[in-house]
Specification:
This protein has 454 residues and is α/β, with parallel strands linked by helices. The chain has 14 helices and 18 strands. α2 (46-62) runs antiparallel to α4, α4 (79-97) runs parallel beside α5 (134-147) and α9 (245-257) packs across α10. The model has no long low-confidence stretch (mean pLDDT 97). It binds nicotinamide-adenine-dinucleotide. Nicotinamide-adenine-dinucleotide (NAD) binds next to α7 and α8.
Amino acid sequence: MAHTLQVIEPATEQVLAELPHAGVEEADAAIERAKAAFPAWRDVTPGDRAKILRRIAAAIDERADDLAELEARNVGKPISDARGEVGMVVDTFLYYSGAPERLLGDTIPVAGGMDFTFREPLGVVGLITPWNFPIAITSWKLAPALAAGNTVVLKPAELTPLTALELEKIAVEAGLPEGVFNVVVGPGRVVGERMVEHPDVAKIAFTGSTEVGRRIGALASQSIKRVTLELGGKSANIVFADADLDRAAASAPLAVFGNAGQDCCARSRILVERSALDRFMDALEEAVDSLRVGDPLDPDTQMGPLISADQREKVSSYADGEAPVAIRGSAPDGPGYWFPPTVLCPVSNDDRAAREEIFGPVAAVIPFDSEAEAVRLANDTIYGLSGSIWTRNGARALRVARAVESGALSVNSNTSVRVSTPFGGFKQSGIGRELGPHALDAYTELKNVYVSTE
Ligand code: NAD
């Protein structure tokens, strides 16, 4: 029996939308629709599947302004970020529209016959997504899943379901057959777990917290369900004294405070070589002071509010913890779930603020004395998602990049995500890779066929 879900706008605390809240019955019905649609979608010719993906990309592009505004209001993220993310969704569909006709196999030399491999779709794929980058993360999973011939059930986060529902309508209008992509808005514990346990769901692609990822992994193991997990992070931004300190400091705030710090790639541990600490902190303070925090719909805004009152409470507990506050930026007063950008310094890597994913605008600055110590500190975490290395010494950049246990590293840059390159975590940051060519492996099963010629 469906209840009503209120979707709140974090910058105003007003109700943005009211929706039916699904339960197990609705989840089962969506899985049934996806199962019924699977054979026909799998059998659409690769060329026609590619065309439909290109049409979806064009339709999203046409609606880009509306989708970006909806996303900005629902998540509280700056409109300029939301526009960039919707642009990435278009690019993701275009990128994977090249895949249906390029799902190549191998021919393998064997005795007595011929041997081929094929990439087969899995069937019904369940997607479970978080609230921080709702439409972007959906596209990273949806586009390769559809390209490979799977049908999909998506459960978006309850706090931010609005762009997923728009995407479902847009896809059907663009020519995706009914039943191939189904959105169910409901609680993770109910709808999400039903998808994980349902025998007709072949695979779960999850992005969210490490805690929920562990539970999904455990439940999925009961039926040996395929699972990819994109989980939390506590990434290191390593700044050596020989770096361009002004550039490193200028880009450090948004590398943590972008999306109000609610970013799995947030470089929330800033490791700074002690001999450059004072100079770096001065430049960092200037950069934090110049951050524009405020109305998400203002095109100049760089940081909005947090997603909810609960999240603000959780974030406050770290900012008022054991490490001293060195820099505190400004934020509007209520209404809205505002929190000022905050830098703690010096922080020990053993402090709670350095060990746990805060998921808010709080950075921990940790001094180090040698390259070996920087690598040891960077790796002294359960996570391994992203990170940066700032240095003018090319050999050191490569040495450290190889030594840091992390899925996506950048040198003299704080970017992590590109449509054409693999993204995912080492250690407890996840299992599997999204984006780039490798994501297709996660939405296909490898089949080997041997033909005797004797
Ligand atoms: P969350 O784990 O609370 O929820 C994620 C999704 O899982 C939501 O749709 C939720 O409803 C659902 N869910 C909750 N409990 C469930 C259960 N028992 N079974 C099935 N589904 C369940 O995460 P969140 O708070 O929405 O997002 C923040 C987290 O996501 C952070 O830890 C962040 O690091 C992580 N994240 C990771 C990546 C990445 O690519 N590695 C990207 C973005 C966010």
